[in-house]
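job 3f2a | input accepted
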Amino acid sequence: ASTNRCPVKGCDSRGHVNPSISQHCTLTACPAYRDRTGQPCEPDLSRVPLENRQSLQLFREAQNALASDTEQDMLAHWRMLPSEYQVEQVAIGNALLDVWYKSCLPADLACVPVLHYCEFCLACFTQRLSLTRHSRKCACRHPPGVEVYREGQVSLFEVDGRHFRAYCQSLCRLAKFFIRHKTLVEGVEAFVFYVLTEADQTGCRLIGYFSKEKRSLLNYNLSCLLVFPNHMRKGFGFLLIDLSYRISQLEGSVGSPERPLSDAGLAAYRKYWTRALLTRLLEHQGTDISVRDLSQETGIHANDIVSTLQSLELLKYWRGEHFILADKNRLRQKLSACLSTYMRLADPACLSWRPADYLTGGTA
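job 3f2a | predicted structure (364 res):
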């Protein structure tokens, strides 16, 4: 850019390219009022009557103000995430939960410290008053979809991500607050969600959920599992795991959770696998039982069975073959140690699941 001083009296511009017009001389003689090619930004208006030049100056000032406002709006949009990300808590019903991780939220929702969720339809609001108004009109009292399990006050609802896309997307965004590697938000159509609730006088209150890919090439029977912090340490995580395996057995398949598993997820599954396998081995009356038999009877994948038995030191390799050391007394000792951890399992008589259309070849 040129560094020559403007010849016009009273202008101290040194001719930098594209300065703010309102701060420099507006005559074409000023080197500052030129574009990047050195040409004047507008024709020579020195012969234009004075009153018209005053109108032109007012127009320039209005254009500068508009450009400044537009620039500030753009900066606010781009800086909203993550520098102005303010969400620290989420309110679900009567529970106020501290978030653990950042979720992928629209800019208008990410700029408040507390988000308020309707626990029945999962509509999200930035103000408590808005949620109160919504609650007066909301007719939902349980998750959408079909109830497939009911034991006392606890129910499980099957929610198709294609039929109830908005609900499932909101559920995924909510889960992202508590799961580090949660990535599914948009492609919910390919998944089915099993939402666990507990009923009271108001309705079915949200406990947690697990999602499952409709057609998994690797036979995964669970993609993501979450129990909300206010319902943790009550056995609901084991209940969801048990239900995922029982549904797989009704499908006639052997399942396994999607990898990689988190440390907490692997620990929970290892406890579940240990109890299920030890219980089945103690119930077995014969002398011979294979890993394949255990897999068919429990719905647990053979690889998970082998890794669990190895961790329990019950699987030995001798003369080219693997043998399960099923000494009854040893099995009881290991099972009693496993039973010290509270574990809630499903009642098969309360499960009324049937294959959905996407599994039987119908229209989803």
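job 3f2a | The CA atoms of residues 155 and 328 lie 36 Å apart.
job 3f2a | closed
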